[in-house]
């Protein structure tokens, strides 16, 4: 005859004043303890009867041990997640883009959002960031928008990892209204000549320590080839084919930016003079406009020490002669626009201009540079003489610079023109 199962109810009072009950009984040769929690006495007695009946039938099973639910993954701060995002993505970015993104993160986004957890970055927080930037006045609308765009990109990655549910930096409401900038460029042949003459004067007056900086040729490349400032400082002699009359832009941000630019008369003369003066070009990797030690020039130096000083001197000369000064805020990109406007004024096919600029949007090119097509015939003739140089393309004579360079045996490094 089997022995009847027995057990009892155990009670204790909790700190909260409630009575907690449990069952203590023997099952399968072992003492068992089953917590019931704060249940009524009648319910506890009923549960005891059911348990003991199951034990006698051999149907009772001890409750399975349950592990505590995992702790939820902590939401990282923006600083922590931005570091992860940078580690995973910076290798896919071009060097210039890396530098730009670092500037946006370190100088602007991190000082404001660094200690915020991702899920605490709200629409209100983004709007407060924009308001602070506008109040500080250090950034323009476009620059502020660029920082918010990067913030949205990083937060989009957080959504993919299911760390946040929505992106508070996305949407037009989180952008500053941008005013269309005034796009400056040199409007007349007189202005171009004044700037190049001023740069040439600075070259003549330079001390021995500054003779390696060829100011007039640098500005001539910007004006007559339309290079960006970064493309200018990266230009090497292997990219200049003086024999065939082409300049190749290899260091560019996009496929369209890698392009061929025709060396028209005035620019070819300037580059021949640089070759004759420096004797460079024997080594293909040499920069066309190097530092004193042969390294790459700083773009900031060219903006301030070359273009800035030449602009100041050119304005002084123009004003003294009773002419209009150069447009305000002349930048290296102003000279790139000058190149495009001159080509349009001389009747170049828009497709040719787009190719030489590395543009892909014809509507953009025509919209930005359409004003240049309204020049009179006399001004167009002056521009043509300026672009073609002292000796026109139809004249078989060589000017002094061309003769000096070619007679010195400075054979250009040849390469096939790109499509």
Structural account:
The protein is mainly α. The protein has 3 domains: 51 residues; 97 residues, DNA polymerase, domain 1 (Orthogonal Bundle), CATH 1.10.150.130; 219 residues, Intergrase catalytic core (hpI Integrase, Chain A, Orthogonal Bundle). 48% of the residues lie in helices and 8% in strands. The protein is built from 15 helices and 6 strands. The chain has a 3-stranded antiparallel beta sheet, with helices on one face. A 3-stranded antiparallel beta sheet has the order 4-5-6. A hairpin with a 2-residue loop joins strand 2 and strand 3. Helix 11 runs antiparallel to helix 12. The termini are far apart.
Question: In a few lines, what is going on in this structure?
Answer:
The protein is 48% helix and 8% strand.
Write the layout of secondary structure elements.
Layout: E1 7-13, E2 19-27, E3 30-37, H1 41-57, H2 78-89, H3 95-113, H4 123-136, H5 141-160, H6 189-205, H7 215-225, H8 229-234, E4 240-241, E5 246-249, E6 259-262, H9 265-278, H10 299-320, H11 332-345, H12 350-357, H13 362-369, H14 377-388, H15 400-407
Antiparallel strand pairs: 1-2, 2-3, 4-5, 5-6
Descriptive labels:
6 strands, mainly alpha, 3-stranded antiparallel β-sheet, 3 domains, 419 residues, DNA polymerase, domain 1, 8% strand, hpI Integrase, Chain A, disordered C terminus
How many β-strand stretches? 6
Question: What is the gyration radius calculated from CA atoms?
Answer: 38 Å
Main sheet record: 3 strands, antiparallel
Q: What is the overall pLDDT average?
A: 83
CATH class of the largest domain: Mainly Alpha
Write the CATH homologous superfamily of the largest domain.
Intergrase catalytic core
Order of helices and strands: EEEHHHHHHHHEEEHHHHHHH
The total count of helices amounts to: 15
The amount of beta strand, in percent, is: 5-15%
List unreliable stretches of 5+ residues: 391-419
